[in-house]
Design a protein that fits this description.
The chain is built from 6 helices and 7 strands, in the order E-H-E-E-E-H-E-E-H-E-H-H-H. The chain has helices at residues 24-35, 74-84, 117-126, 147-152, 157-180, 182-189, and strands spanning 4-9, 41-43, 47-53, 60-66, 91-97, 105-109, 132-137. Helices cover 37% and strands 21% of the residues. It has a 7-stranded mixed sheet, with helices on both faces.
Length: 194
Protein backbone atom coordinates (compact mmCIF):
# COMPACT_ATOMS: atom_id res chain seq x y z
CA UNK A 1 0.00 0.00 0.00
CA UNK A 2 1.72 3.12 -1.24
CA UNK A 3 0.27 5.62 1.21
CA UNK A 4 -0.76 3.48 4.18
CA UNK A 5 0.32 3.78 7.79
CA UNK A 6 0.09 1.21 10.58
CA UNK A 7 -0.68 2.95 13.88
CA UNK A 8 -0.22 0.65 16.87
CA UNK A 9 -1.47 1.46 20.35
CA UNK A 10 0.41 -0.43 23.04
CA UNK A 11 -1.25 -1.83 26.14
CA UNK A 12 -2.26 -5.02 27.90
CA UNK A 13 -5.36 -7.09 27.10
CA UNK A 14 -8.42 -7.49 29.29
CA UNK A 15 -10.59 -5.33 31.55
CA UNK A 16 -8.09 -5.42 34.43
CA UNK A 17 -5.68 -3.20 32.46
CA UNK A 18 -8.15 -1.16 30.41
CA UNK A 19 -7.79 2.22 32.15
CA UNK A 20 -4.24 1.84 33.46
CA UNK A 21 -1.37 4.16 32.59
CA UNK A 22 0.32 1.38 30.58
CA UNK A 23 -2.69 1.31 28.23
CA UNK A 24 -2.37 4.96 27.19
CA UNK A 25 -1.46 3.89 23.65
CA UNK A 26 -4.61 1.82 23.23
CA UNK A 27 -6.73 4.63 24.69
CA UNK A 28 -5.33 6.98 22.03
CA UNK A 29 -6.34 4.48 19.33
CA UNK A 30 -9.84 4.36 20.78
CA UNK A 31 -9.96 8.15 20.31
CA UNK A 32 -8.74 7.89 16.70
CA UNK A 33 -11.35 5.21 15.89
CA UNK A 34 -14.12 7.16 17.63
CA UNK A 35 -13.32 10.27 15.55
CA UNK A 36 -14.03 8.17 12.48
CA UNK A 37 -17.08 6.36 13.96
CA UNK A 38 -15.22 3.05 13.48
CA UNK A 39 -15.22 -0.14 15.57
CA UNK A 40 -12.25 -2.44 16.08
CA UNK A 41 -12.56 -5.90 14.54
CA UNK A 42 -10.59 -9.07 15.22
CA UNK A 43 -7.62 -9.63 12.89
CA UNK A 44 -5.86 -12.96 12.34
CA UNK A 45 -2.55 -11.38 13.46
CA UNK A 46 -3.77 -11.46 17.10
CA UNK A 47 -4.93 -7.86 17.13
CA UNK A 48 -8.04 -5.71 16.90
CA UNK A 49 -7.92 -3.53 13.80
CA UNK A 50 -9.71 -0.63 12.13
CA UNK A 51 -9.00 0.14 8.47
CA UNK A 52 -9.83 3.77 7.79
CA UNK A 53 -8.44 7.00 6.30
CA UNK A 54 -6.70 10.02 7.76
CA UNK A 55 -9.27 12.11 5.84
CA UNK A 56 -11.23 11.55 2.61
CA UNK A 57 -8.67 11.18 -0.16
CA UNK A 58 -5.84 11.08 2.39
CA UNK A 59 -3.50 8.33 3.55
CA UNK A 60 -4.94 4.99 4.66
CA UNK A 61 -4.70 4.27 8.40
CA UNK A 62 -4.61 0.80 9.89
CA UNK A 63 -5.27 1.32 13.60
CA UNK A 64 -4.19 -1.73 15.60
CA UNK A 65 -4.39 -2.82 19.23
CA UNK A 66 -2.39 -6.02 19.85
CA UNK A 67 -4.15 -8.68 21.91
CA UNK A 68 -0.80 -9.76 23.34
CA UNK A 69 0.72 -8.38 26.51
CA UNK A 70 2.76 -5.26 25.87
CA UNK A 71 6.18 -6.79 26.47
CA UNK A 72 5.63 -9.32 23.66
CA UNK A 73 3.81 -7.11 21.14
CA UNK A 74 6.65 -7.16 18.58
CA UNK A 75 5.48 -10.32 16.82
CA UNK A 76 1.97 -8.93 16.40
CA UNK A 77 3.29 -5.60 15.05
CA UNK A 78 5.71 -7.29 12.64
CA UNK A 79 2.92 -9.63 11.47
CA UNK A 80 0.57 -6.72 10.78
CA UNK A 81 3.31 -4.74 8.98
CA UNK A 82 4.00 -7.76 6.77
CA UNK A 83 0.30 -8.48 6.15
CA UNK A 84 -0.37 -4.89 5.01
CA UNK A 85 3.02 -4.41 3.31
CA UNK A 86 3.95 -1.43 5.46
CA UNK A 87 7.63 -0.57 6.01
CA UNK A 88 8.94 0.23 9.52
CA UNK A 89 9.20 3.95 8.75
CA UNK A 90 5.39 4.05 8.46
CA UNK A 91 4.69 2.01 11.61
CA UNK A 92 3.67 4.54 14.26
CA UNK A 93 3.88 3.18 17.82
CA UNK A 94 1.80 5.03 20.43
CA UNK A 95 2.88 4.24 23.99
CA UNK A 96 3.07 5.47 27.56
CA UNK A 97 6.31 7.14 28.67
CA UNK A 98 7.49 7.35 32.29
CA UNK A 99 10.19 9.93 31.56
CA UNK A 100 7.74 12.51 30.23
CA UNK A 101 5.44 14.41 32.62
CA UNK A 102 1.74 13.57 32.56
CA UNK A 103 -0.22 15.69 30.09
CA UNK A 104 2.75 15.94 27.69
CA UNK A 105 3.19 14.44 24.21
CA UNK A 106 6.56 13.89 22.53
CA UNK A 107 7.32 12.44 19.10
CA UNK A 108 10.49 10.87 17.75
CA UNK A 109 11.84 8.39 15.24
CA UNK A 110 14.39 5.80 16.31
CA UNK A 111 16.64 6.06 19.32
CA UNK A 112 16.68 3.81 22.34
CA UNK A 113 13.74 2.13 23.99
CA UNK A 114 14.29 3.92 27.31
CA UNK A 115 13.52 0.73 29.25
CA UNK A 116 10.11 0.37 27.58
CA UNK A 117 9.85 -3.37 26.96
CA UNK A 118 7.06 -3.04 24.39
CA UNK A 119 9.16 -0.68 22.25
CA UNK A 120 12.19 -2.96 22.73
CA UNK A 121 10.22 -6.00 21.51
CA UNK A 122 8.88 -4.14 18.46
CA UNK A 123 12.37 -2.92 17.49
CA UNK A 124 13.64 -6.51 17.76
CA UNK A 125 10.75 -7.93 15.70
CA UNK A 126 10.99 -5.24 12.99
CA UNK A 127 14.79 -5.56 13.02
CA UNK A 128 15.07 -1.78 13.33
CA UNK A 129 14.38 0.98 15.84
CA UNK A 130 13.74 3.47 13.02
CA UNK A 131 9.98 3.76 13.44
CA UNK A 132 7.98 6.83 14.55
CA UNK A 133 6.76 6.97 18.14
CA UNK A 134 4.10 9.09 19.78
CA UNK A 135 5.03 9.04 23.46
CA UNK A 136 2.23 9.82 25.91
CA UNK A 137 3.63 11.19 29.16
CA UNK A 138 2.47 9.44 32.33
CA UNK A 139 5.22 10.78 34.61
CA UNK A 140 7.21 8.99 37.28
CA UNK A 141 5.57 7.54 40.39
CA UNK A 142 5.53 9.65 43.54
CA UNK A 143 7.75 8.74 46.47
CA UNK A 144 9.19 5.25 46.44
CA UNK A 145 6.46 3.51 44.45
CA UNK A 146 7.86 0.99 42.01
CA UNK A 147 7.57 2.07 38.36
CA UNK A 148 6.25 -1.38 37.35
CA UNK A 149 3.35 -0.98 39.81
CA UNK A 150 2.77 2.64 38.78
CA UNK A 151 2.25 1.86 35.10
CA UNK A 152 -0.23 -0.93 35.94
CA UNK A 153 -2.28 1.30 38.25
CA UNK A 154 -5.36 3.14 36.94
CA UNK A 155 -5.00 6.85 36.31
CA UNK A 156 -5.60 8.83 39.51
CA UNK A 157 -8.60 11.17 40.00
CA UNK A 158 -6.70 14.34 39.00
CA UNK A 159 -5.26 12.58 35.94
CA UNK A 160 -8.67 11.22 34.89
CA UNK A 161 -9.99 14.77 34.83
CA UNK A 162 -7.37 15.77 32.23
CA UNK A 163 -7.13 12.40 30.47
CA UNK A 164 -9.60 13.22 27.65
CA UNK A 165 -7.48 16.25 26.71
CA UNK A 166 -4.26 14.22 26.79
CA UNK A 167 -5.75 11.48 24.61
CA UNK A 168 -7.15 14.03 22.17
CA UNK A 169 -3.76 15.79 21.95
CA UNK A 170 -2.03 12.46 21.32
CA UNK A 171 -4.57 11.57 18.60
CA UNK A 172 -3.94 15.00 17.04
CA UNK A 173 -0.19 14.25 17.14
CA UNK A 174 -0.70 10.94 15.29
CA UNK A 175 -2.84 12.64 12.63
CA UNK A 176 -0.34 15.45 12.19
CA UNK A 177 2.61 13.05 12.03
CA UNK A 178 0.93 11.07 9.23
CA UNK A 179 -0.48 14.10 7.42
CA UNK A 180 2.29 16.68 7.75
CA UNK A 181 5.41 14.81 8.85
CA UNK A 182 7.46 14.44 12.02
CA UNK A 183 8.94 17.94 12.15
CA UNK A 184 5.58 19.71 11.86
CA UNK A 185 4.10 17.44 14.53
CA UNK A 186 7.07 18.01 16.84
CA UNK A 187 6.89 21.78 16.39
CA UNK A 188 3.25 21.80 17.41
CA UNK A 189 3.31 19.26 20.25
CA UNK A 190 6.75 20.00 21.74
CA UNK A 191 6.02 23.71 22.09
CA UNK A 192 5.07 24.97 25.56
CA UNK A 193 1.33 25.42 26.00
CA UNK A 194 0.02 28.96 25.91
Amino acid sequence: MADAWLVVGLGNPGPRYELTRHNAGQLVLDELAERRSETFRTHKANARVVETWLRPGGPKLILAKPNSFMNVSGGVVAGLAKFYGIPAERVVVVHDELDIPFDTIKLKVGGGHGGHNGVRDIAKALDTAQFPRVRVGIGRPPGRQDAADWVLDPFGPAERKNLPILLSDAADAVEQLVGEGLVAAQQKHHAPRA
